[in-house]
Amino acid sequence: DDVQQQQQQQQQQSSNAMVDDQSLGVDGSSGLGIAALPHQIHMWECNPNDASGAWTQSPHVKILLPDAAHKTIYLNHATGMLGGTYQISEVRGGRCSYEREDAIARFFWDAVDLSWVVEIPWEGQQDVDTISYRRVAIQSSGEDVLDPTQIKSFRTWDDSIGNFGDDPGLSVHIGTSPPAQLYVTGLLRSDIVGVYNLRAEPQDGKPVYQKDSGSRNSPGCAIRWHATSRFWLFDTRGLCTDGVGVARCSEDRQCPHEVGSWEVLQLDTVQNDSSEGLQVETLGEVASWEPTQSLSIMAIQSQPAEIFVDVKLPSELVRARGVYKLQQKKHDLRQVYEKPVGGWTLRWSSQEIAWVLAQVHGGVVDEEAPRARAARDVPDPSIVDPVKSSGLWESCCLGPSSQAAWVIDMGISALLLPTPPARVFVSGNHETHMLYGVYFLRGMRNGRPSYAKEAVASGGIIDIDRGQIAWSGCKKMCWIISGPGTIDPPCSAQLLDDIPIPSIESVSTWTLQEDGPGDGTPSSKSRLKRICRGVVHAQSWIRRRGSAGNFHQRPGDIDMVSSRRRSAGSLSSGNGQALGPLGVPVGARSFKDLKRSKTTGGIGPLGMPVGASSFKDAKRLSGGNLDTFFGPGGTASIDGIGEDDDDDDDTLQEEKLVLTCMRADESPKAVFLHGYNEVNDAVFFLQETLVEGRFYYINEAGTGKLHWQRNDQRWCLSCVTSERHIWNVNLSVACDTPDPTLVRLVWEETLSCSRAQSPTSSASSPSETEDDMDDFSIREETSMDLEDDEVDENVESAEPKQEQIRRKALPFVTCEAVGSPPQEIFVVAGTAVKSDFTGVFLWDASSVGEQRPTYTAERVGTSTPCTIRWIPLYRRWVIERVPKLGGRRNKFARAAANTLAFVLAGIEYDAPHPAAVQTTWEVRRGDAWTREDGIFCRVVRRPPGQICVLGETQKYDAVSGTYILASQNSESEFKRPKYIKDGEDQLAIRYHVESRRWIIDSGGSDRSGPLGDYVITCNVPNPIETNVACWQSFDKSSQAWIDEETLGCYAGSLPPKQIYFVGGRLGLPGVYTFMFRRTYNGCFAYAKEGTGWHCWWSVRHKGWIVAHLHKSELGAKPEKRKVSETGEAWCVQDISHPALGTAWNFKARYFMKGGRMNTLSGIITNPEAAKACGERPLTCVEVGLPPHALMVRHGTDRKTMSGVYFLSPEL
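Request: output the structure for the sequence above.
Response:
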């Protein structure tokens, strides 16, 4: 049945087939070959009907089927209104008919008249669809063709003669109607590129486009078809009929944007930037055509629905910043964009020949005074791009004579709306504000993307409302971040900036708001706990508390800094006690203090109960709960407010936090977690699998994993045990960030777990699912984890106290993104290590694209250079020297890739490159590995501009001093700097390649030999790295090299050998002596003789720090996160040595954590505060040369002790 049905369909199709041949004779033709249907025959023969009667093959004969008709045709009607795009419709008269898009005109085959006709309704009868009420307006000239695009001539109805007349301006083409506008781009003349509009009258049967010149006297450039020469032409003279143009194309297409290659006219006598002198009679003598690839034409199909006008500060047009929507109306044949709120419009101006930004007053556009413009003829203003040299915006300003002047404004740009990111990240953590975290794209709200936090399940309850980011709409025109609905009072923030997505850089700042009861008392324990965290705002944070819950912002709020320590207000509690600005009684630092202040006589100005005359009385009256005290001033600090959260400077009285919203779509390909231990420090690689909404990382060995726990809201480091393959969480941090590199809180080590994960749910493979990760069973802290002083003693929990997870803070653990490896590193070893693998190593280009880089040492002479590489089999960085063997079939290199036979040193530590190793290297002696503290691998930095040479005794005064960078070594392979002493051209520090020596030479900077006053055999990139070894001088008497133990080279200018601290805490004052050949963080340090007090430069805190290190050596432990936890005194100034510091801060006599600034229990920041507290201000001075003589006087003993004492040179 299927075969029969198919045959019937083929017979029905063949019945509708027709013959189309331009050279067919009267006798017809016959097909050759065997075919089931005539339309399947490819070659026919024709009978010419002559005397020979011979049949000849004709390739012009073809049989078409109705199903081969075009879906869309375009009727070009120059003299009428029937042109346009026609879509295929029903089969009528055995052929396909077409209907125009407006359903008024129909184009079909008339089987009665045997012609193609266009039928339209009679005037006034457009709604009647009866054939009797329609008339024929166009008909073909009797051509019997199946495809209407093959019709050669048409006739249209002429009312003047009452009959049809020939119409040469009408034609049918395949496809749709030509676009209304074209856009010409390329590195061509300015009068050619731009937007071209379609003209109503075609020329030579094809559309014509012309550009708006902006002037009535000069016509714009035209794109037209010349039928005689059969070229598409660019004619800068306007609409002409000859074959002259400045660019041409020979492709015969219906529209110019469909052609591909163009040729540009090159004239020898006429300049390219002028159309004058184009003469038809002399054009062939002086012109030449050259192909060009820069000219391109594209059709303007549609305009972007929205455009973002970005105006950056300090431009005066900031109010024009925002999202502009496309309007239905047009201006000067271009679309118009308007801002929904604010009265701004963006439109094309033919008078200015530019896109202009103008204001709208009362619905009327101020066209006479546009505020900005972009003189670039483009379809829409988003194409004006200064980065791509596509034009610049100009803003209008008034000149000295009150005349408008246009000035280039780099702060204005019109952009297409960016694609909303799948995730955004609001910076911060739970210690700063409750709105921080990762928000996921959830759809559109008020025409803009909206974001929400992920749902969290806890105790069988799913919390969905955890925070949202949404656009408020046209009423407020701001972005709003809403906090969790479970927080009392609710917290939110808003951004008054009309930007398409919240992660775009804004010219405004986020304003935080917390709704409070407004009565000056804490509404709940959670509120007081949040107050104690000390959430403050500066510049971008403007805090407003009130019962109405509205946002309040004044013009001065942008520059306002809210102090964390405010004086007591005039509010009072129920018992008449004064309340502070945070709504708690003055002096209350916890719930116990709050309860005690209600029952006792209150708390005094020092934070002690009223009536306490001493600290013993205070302890007795407070029930033994006195663990801190405060300075004078009538105000007691609240727990947590006295602590500074800023990592860089704890001396600031105001915390400067900035709430930002950034994209969080891209995660680093690899991260490096270090500071934990040698076993678990590793490089973790990104896995392209989402687990609980975040990507996770696995190390190369597959034994460690960095992943996100949704319910616990923690980033975790889980390690697998080798015996049972059970995953355990070793590290975690409660910080909601897109990836672990953005964590700014302290990582915590898990000391106990309630239960372990079963082996069946192990997530060691990349194919793990979210359910696998849920089996990491760590009991999170509950509400029982509050401190004892934060819980009311009278409140008894009905539920039993749950078991807690024990965690230990590890402030030195850091997770960083792995970037590009350094180009150069160097290995240096101490004098005790007898090694020949030191020197500078260059990044091997053959390791590009691999997970770990390979480095090759500089070649000196003919010896085989050493190589530093990573061996995954042993998980080691190794320094090896492998012999180089030639030969095409040499298998030695492949065999040596996984062997340790040629290894000289190494370390089993997983780091992204060898300079990032955080532990001591090992030297291989036979089959044993020995730890050597004197081996270091560091990154080659740019040589400093100044260095200094300093020794302990006067012996080194001749070479001591400051040296200035003179030049780099001219040799290509060994780039070493050369230094010349400041003020002495004959004293220089240079490097000798053959002997691998740094030399201090007084014989002049032009010498190049291996000898000098002092030499050191140390192959390092610059002299300041030579302190691991000893400088040597040649003793002529003994004919031997003598070690100079105290001579060293340091970065910066010459420091004093001794400094003297005056003031500060007990034990800190005194004389500190220079630590020769000892550096920390690349800088020298000072030590107080006979004590553990040291003074050194801190790279982390960017300042000089003084601290007592007890018996531990300097640099044995890394610095802590806060400067107040690291040192006893500090000076955060960029100075070369401590004696230049003028802003020293130090801990007061009774310093306690949480103490108020500039009090006895806090940190002293200035001399005035120190004197007010009875402390001596801390200063540091340089110890100069001692006087040659001293005069001692004694009141009673004038003979024995009194007298003149002279300086002893021996001491």
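The radius of gyration is 43 Å.
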